[in-house]
Amino acid sequence: NHEEIVVIEGDGIGREVVPAAVEVLDAVGDFEFVAADAGDAVKAETGEALPQATYDAVADADATLFGAAGETAADVILPLRTAVGSFVNVRPARAYPGVEAVQPETDLVFLRENTEGVYAGHEDRLSEDLSTLTRVVTTSAAERLAAFACEFVADRGSDGFQVVHKANVMRETDGRFRDAVVDVADANGVDTEEVLMDAFATRVCLDPTQFDVVVCPNLAGDVLSDLAAGLVGGLGLLPSANIGPDNALFEPVHGTAPDIAGEGVANPSAAILSAAMLLDHLGYGAAADAVRDAVESVLSSGPRTPDLGGDARTDAVTDAVIDRLA
Amino acid sequence: NHEEIVVIEGDGIGREVVPAAVEVLDAVGDFEFVAADAGDAVKAETGEALPQATYDAVADADATLFGAAGETAADVILPLRTAVGSFVNVRPARAYPGVEAVQPETDLVFLRENTEGVYAGHEDRLSEDLSTLTRVVTTSAAERLAAFACEFVADRGSDGFQVVHKANVMRETDGRFRDAVVDVADANGVDTEEVLMDAFATRVCLDPTQFDVVVCPNLAGDVLSDLAAGLVGGLGLLPSANIGPDNALFEPVHGTAPDIAGEGVANPSAAILSAAMLLDHLGYGAAADAVRDAVESVLSSGPRTPDLGGDARTDAVTDAVIDRLA
Ligand SMILES: CC(C)[C@H](C(=O)O)[C@@H](O)C(=O)O
Ligand SMILES: CC(C)[C@H](C(=O)O)[C@@H](O)C(=O)O
Q1: Mean pLDDT, to the nearest integer, of B85-107?
Q2: Which Pfam families does the entry mention (chains A, B) (predicted)?
């Protein structure tokens, strides 16, 4: 009757940062960890980047912690989002005191639609010259996302949220998305501001403090949250959550970092912060806050891995985080 | 037998910055200017944001200088791109010495596919709940863009270009785009580097000097060039060109700026730099360089409009640019 957490290290530094995050989870709770494989390495061995057994384990678990996959990233992460029934990808992007950032005041959360848009992926080769992709937008997906956003801003203590879209060009599809999101927010008494996707890209660079919680279609959320990652100093510190109605998958936003993989110097912060989101999801809010505080404390005055200008190893940072857990 | 340039001021500060750019063109060459209407104001009067007479004038001209349109922007600019047969939108994004920028080393040019992608705009309302948009990608459009890019990098003295895409998700459509662009570059001995759209957003924030000439699908070019605009300090200084086989339209990237419209304090630099791109296009490369040098000189040591922290008026800046023309 302990919660069952599937753990997928994947490739590259996933094999270093996921064990670090599991150590932290072990330090704050009593979980049953179930290891599963996915990514380039298992594909090389078995021919499949995402074995059925892994898919099934993820679908049945209480939550999954995933590291990173290399070339096969899309083959792994897109089906796993489906496995947990995820309708929203939660991507906080904040700068940390003491960590160099292009815009050190950045503190945003993207709520990315996680099932459709161009990711619905109906593509056709219509002629030698011409291919098409059918972008799919439903009112029901936008409404579910918006309902989540309304609860999210209430929990965060925010006044409302921004809705990003490109409805001046994609009038029917992004118009539908915008209208559905705004209608749900209105019905819940939550304020919204509409921002065109291109204007958002300019404005967030100039002054990220204009934004707080940002609700986006799938591809917009992918690109704009990665933009914000650039503003806070890179992907190294960013966690993310793929949330479904009764299951979820957590992953650092960074990739496999092949240049440093295997050296034991990967920064475990993003994976540990992803574990904190997992704790939140399972209802251990106090433990989640303790983990975030410990990571923040180590980032500002503890050992640092080389990506942050230090020379500490992954396990030294992990030990420091565990030491500082309140 | 002077070149005929259609001049569309449009709305808001378009009415201030376009006349400034026309003054500069008048100072360096002998052109026949033909005024035409488009935008919110003409729509309020006539019901049409883009009168047929304007469309025809643009289609028949040697080149068009356009200011900005308000709410009707998409109804104006998308058909006008078609009117000039534009297949590429050229968007330089560079920072200027003396102008505050998030990333002052930025000096990029985006070459944006200008005819298809999600802008091809086949949208359908399939049910109460569901709408679709058909994204269109052809090899022929990608090849034409790539051929332009190969000439462009040669003129610029660049080694090659980056190709941005999201072919890990849009495998068939962006895969087609990427393959066609890379094949043309290979055949011309031009180096290419592939960058995923989301990774580009992160990397360009962290270090824009990694990039030089960036070839993109339509929506990616829209969003990523606006991102770069944020890095150089805003849209205020950015010109753009919509190039077709034998016609073209030039416009500042900024909009109508309703907050300052009518006050005579709009920054005319982006419109004047757009006029410089027009001069290049008509074959007056020396005049184009002279205009760019004059604008740069005024930006670093001349009168400044309020957006750049000064208190000069539009005409003072314009006069200064004309004074400094070599
Ligand atoms: C690997 C890729 C398919 C994925 C996406 O585009 O969603 C990644 O960029 C992400 O954002 O998690
Ligand atoms: C007004 C709009 C349709 C247009 C576009 O998306 O192309 C604008 O953002 C631009 O980039 O010129």
Answers
A1: 95
A2: Iso_dh
C-beta of residue A251 within 8 angstroms of C-beta of residue A68 = yes
Chain A residues touching B257 at Cβ < 8 A = none
Closest CA to B84 of B204, B242, B200: B242
To test the contact with chain A by mutation, choose from B123, B225, B235, B253 the residue with the greatest count of A C-beta atoms within 10 A, namely B123
Q: Which of residues 79-108 of A touch B (CB under 8 A)?
A: 102-103
Ligand 1 nearest atom to the CA of residue B198, by list position: 9
Q: Per residue in A82-134, pLDDT tens? A: 999 999 999 999 999 889 999 999 999 999 999 999 999 799 999 999 999 99
Cβ-based contacts of A103 with chain B (< 8 Å): 102
By Cβ distance, the residue of B78, B203, B205 closest to A205 is B205
- Is A46 exposed, middle or buried, given 0-12, 13-18 or 19+ CB atoms closer than 10 A? exposed
pLDDT for residue B235: 83
- Residues A176-200 pLDDT 10s: 999 999 999 999 999 999 999 999 9
Q: Which of residues 168-187 of B touch A (CB under 8 A)?
A: 168-173, 176
Q: What pLDDT shows up at residue B97? A: 87
CB B73 less than 6 A from any atom of ligand 2:
yes
Joined tokens for residue B135: 């994204």
Residue A167, classed as helix, strand or coil, is coil
pTM of the full structure: 0.97
DSSP letter at A264 equals: S
* Distance from the first to the final alpha carbon of chain A: 26
Q: A70, A12 in Cβ contact below 8 A?
A: yes
Bridge partners (DSSP) of residue A138 are B130
Distance CA A152, CA A23 (A): 28
Burial label, A214 (beta-carbon count in 10 A; 0-12, 13-18, 19+): buried
Average pLDDT over residues B202-211: 97
Nearest to B227 among A118, A119, A201 (CB): A201
List the beta strands (DSSP E) in B17-170. 32-36, 63-68, 88-94, 107-113, 117-125, 130-138, 160-165
A31-65 pLDDT, tens digit per residue, is 999 999 999 999 999 999 999 999 999 999 999 99
Report chain B's mean pLDDT, rounded to a whole number. 96
CB of B222 closer than 6 angstroms to any ligand 2 atom:
yes
**For the residues of A182-202, what is the DSSP string, one character each?**
HHHHHHTT-EEEEEEHHHHHH
HSE-CB at B171 with a 13 A cutoff on CA atoms is 7
Which residues form the pocket of ligand 1, taking CB atoms under 6 Å from any ligand atom?
A: A 73-74, 77-78, 222; B 168-169, 198
Burial-class residue A246 by CB neighbours within 10 Å (0-12, 13-18, 19+).
exposed
